[in-house]
Amino acid sequence: MDTGGETIFDIALVSDTRLLVVVNEIKKVILVNSQTGGTVAQIKLKSYPRRVCMFNNIMAVVTLKNRSLQLIKINGDILELGRSFSLNGDVRGVARSEDNIVVSYESPPVLQVLSMDGTVMQTFVNKAAEGDVFKWPSFIATSADDMVYVSDWNKSTVTQLDSNLHVIKTYSDLILQNARGIVSVSADQVLVCSQGNHRILLLCPSTGAITSILGQQDGIKEPRALTFSPPQKKLYVVPNGTSGRIQVFQ
To answer: Fewest Cβ atoms closer than 10 Å to its Cβ: which of 62, 108, 205, 226?
Structure first.
């Protein structure tokens, strides 16, 4: 699947036949037909988009370089701009958590739970006594049992937190080098991009086991982002760089 050669920063599953693709360089979010790879709709944003998550089947949330969040309405095959609101940091990752959203910031590394009007509900910051849990919290995923998983590109870790941002466990392994995109497949299955090791990894939180399921022999090279369709058992992977490609595995 090819979106035209521009750099894709993130991807989200809208339905069995639709993907939402964040194209940073041209400040657009594109609705793509996952069966044909064709563009269904696209919308221009006021700043460079970084990450995207689906809040429900008709609303997506996008983080922007200008320290803001943009809501995007999905009306069938039409994209419309919704509300936007400013934030107080260099926002990166985003994921839905119950009726709220979780976001991550850089410099300093911070996590926050926000209501859908931008009200701060919870905040996590590194504490000196505990050491630096995060250095570069990059991507966020949430699971059906309300766990929050955050990949850290700099520390090459995945950290599990509850919905109130209390740390449960940090998973660290050499195989997690430059951890990026992350998605929860089930309560005990989390898929992670290891950009540095050119692998897609399966993390099982109950045991802490981390297993490589796809690698360079499968065409994986510097994976940046991913999403998964449970009904179709399809995995969509975005390589790093300017290829504009989305790889599909089943």
So the answer is: 108
Cα distances from 42 to residues 28, 33, 244, 248, in angstroms, run 7, 12, 15, 21
pTM confidence score? 0.95
Neighbours of 187 (CB within 10 A): 13
What is the three-class DSSP state of 215? coil
Residue that the structure tokens 């998973």 belong to = 171
- The dihedral region occupied by 123, where left means phi > 0, alpha psi between -120 and 50, and beta the remainder, is beta
DSSP string, 150-200: EEETTTTEEEEE-TT--EEEEEE-GGGTTEEEEEEEETTEEEEEETTTTEE
Q: In the beta sheet, which residues pair with residue 52?
A: 62
